[in-house]
Amino acid sequence: MTTQERIKKILSNAGGRYNETWLAKKLGTKQNTLNYNLNHAVRFPEQLKEDIYEIFLREGLIKNRDDECTQFNSLTLDVISNAAMDLNKLVTRTKAAINNNEIDERERKELISIIGDMKINLVKPLDDMLELLKFNE
Asked: From CA 46, how far away is CA 21, in angstroms rounded?
């Protein structure tokens, strides 16, 4: 997710009066200038990103950096915990399945299910971590 996409997503999620017109007024800039930077600029201006970040903080649309660090830590621990539990299940079932040097159909289905669950359990927290970090690129 680009900085522009993240900004537009925050505005969209906030709804109501929070839109590009509102943000342009808060920034003291023309709406056309903001629109260009959000929708057409190849490189988003660093100072504009910081100014928008500060406005979003003041308005409560995003959390402060300490909260983001705490949230990132929590997500990291969730990923590690989920991965450890899922890997333990996978290893246990794999050992049982290969005990006789053959994986039968039931064991194959169990392993497929475990791996599918692992994917589901890891994708969402990893996506959340990426989204949290990408705003500060």
From this structure: 20
Same structural domain for residues 46 and 104? no
Per the structure, how many domains does the chain have? 2
Rounded to a whole number of angstroms, the distance between the first and last alpha carbons of the chain is 10
Give the integer Cα–Cα distance in Å for 77 and 80: 5
57-77 tens-digit pLDDT: 899 888 766 667 777 788 888
Domain interval for residue 10: 3-59
Q: What b/e readout covers 2-36, taking b as 16+ CB neighbours within 10 angstroms?
A: ebeebbbebbeebeeebeeebbbebbeeeeeebee
Question: Could you give the maximum distance between any two Cα atoms of the chain, in Å?
Answer: 72
pLDDT of residue 125: 82
Residue ranges of the chain with per-residue pLDDT less than 70: 1, 64-67, 135-137
pTM over cut 0.70: no
pLDDT recorded at residue 30 = 95
Which tokens hold the place of 33? 């200038």
